[in-house]
Amino acid sequence: MAKTIVGLYDDFATAQQVVQDLLDAGFADEDVSLVASDSAGDLSRQRNIADHDDSTLGTGTGVGAGTGAAIGGIGGLLIGLGALAIPGIGPVVAAGPIVAALVGAGVGAVVGGLVGALVDMGVPEEDAHYYAEGVRQGGTLVTVSTPDHMVDEAVMIMERHHPVDIDERGSTWRETGWSGPEIDTTAATSAAPQREFTPTPTRREPSEANLDVVEEELVVGKRPVEQGSVRVRSYITERPVEETVRLREEHAHVERRRVDRPADDADLDAFEEGEIEITTTREEPVVTKKARVVEEVAVNKEVQERDETIRDTVRRKDIEVEGAEAEAGTTGYRHADDLDFRTHYNSYYTNSNYTYDEYVPAYRYGYGLTNDARYQHRDWGDIEPDIRRSWEQRNPGTWEQFKDAVRHGWERTKETVRS
């Protein structure tokens, strides 16, 4: 369900900035409206709206009226403005979808007035009368129609520019003779059930303000970070080798020799058919391969630990209270302390280029250090770097001139605590 957010502003420039901020935040042109009093005709002249006179405005017709979607900076906003005359309010300029509710079917035919247009947008009739009176008295009205999830953002933008508190302003108007609206409780509009109305809250000064002192602390952890890797890969290579081996080989050799001798008994015994077979052999190389482990490669991780000192800065949000009442409110501060500081100044700094009043903040700054839990029960040498940094943030380049006064104030506080 869409909701209508309405804000009334005393001057046109502020309302114009509200419109620009809404558009910059993503609200659509067709959802933002503006109605501003133009009794003096200044806005119409800026828009170069011409060719109309007082008699035309008096009859309730407007020249140049239109929906004008171009709402932006000064140029864009005025381009989208149309001039109208609203009964009971007078000349106005308007832009955005509210113009359609102010103008009837015929161009310039104002119907229902501003109150009726606001009621059609979901604004309760009593509130609509207040807003219409605000425009009549010179204010500028801004409305935006928004879905539920963007309501808070619209309210924040409109509140940032300090809208008029219509309840408070209405009381003022009544005191000056304004009778207020006559509400018809039986009246209803077709648009009212479809929208919800959210008045823009008005910023008021709180009766009490709380400020937090925020301090950072250094938290050092550790995490593993990959810094490199060792990859061991095994692979096979081949290389030529040679060995020399002696091989034996037999060959059959037949030799026929001519002889001439008488045959003996052995020859006669062998004088028969037969055969002799001789087998020859040869050696050939036989190659086998035998694997041997000749080297080992061991892969492991060596873990080493080391100490590393981390140096960084941490921030602290301090609360500094300025003014005479704040200085006099230093915890435990007494008139005797002020006399001691003046005596110290007269002893050491009368010839400096600074007056006693210029040294007082340094004395009191040191005096208040023991109220800080960070510096209690510590020596000056331990706390001086922190004290110097805090002093220099507010008084750049003056630590060397005032550090002895700060230390005297700090030591004075310790003496007071001991006494």
Structural notes for this entry:
The model is unreliable at 49-75, 105-111, 183-194, 202-207 and 322-330 (pLDDT under 50). The strands form two sheets. A six-stranded mixed beta sheet has the order 3-4-2-5-1-6, with helices on both faces. A two-stranded antiparallel ribbon has the order 7-8. A hairpin with a 3-residue loop joins strand 3 (82-86) and strand 4 (90-95). Helix content is 35%, strand content 10%. With 419 residues, it is α+β, with helices and mostly antiparallel strands. The protein contains 15 helices and eight strands.
Key phrases:
419 residues, alpha+beta, 6-stranded mixed sheet, two-stranded antiparallel ribbon, 8 strands, elongated
In short:
The chain has about 425 residues and is an alpha+beta fold.
The chain-level mean pLDDT equals 77
Counting DSSP H or I runs of 4 or more residues, the number of helices is 15
Oligomer: single chain
Radius of gyration of CA atoms, rounded to a whole number? 52 Å
Question: Which strands sit side by side, in order, in the main sheet?
Answer: 3-4-2-5-1-6
Relative strand content: 5-15%
In terms of structural class, how would the helical and strand content be classed?
alpha+beta
Write the layout of secondary structure elements.
Elements: E1 2-9, H1 12-24, E2 32-37, H2 42-46, H3 54-58, H4 74-79, E3 82-86, E4 90-95, H5 98-102, H6 113-120, H7 125-136, E5 140-146, H8 151-160, H9 166-175, E6 195-199, E7 214-215, H10 265-269, E8 316-317, H11 324-328, H12 335-348, H13 356-367, H14 380-394, H15 399-418
Parallel strand pairs: 1-6
Antiparallel strand pairs: 1-5, 2-4, 2-5, 3-4, 7-8
Helix pairs in contact: 6-7, 12-13, 12-15, 13-15
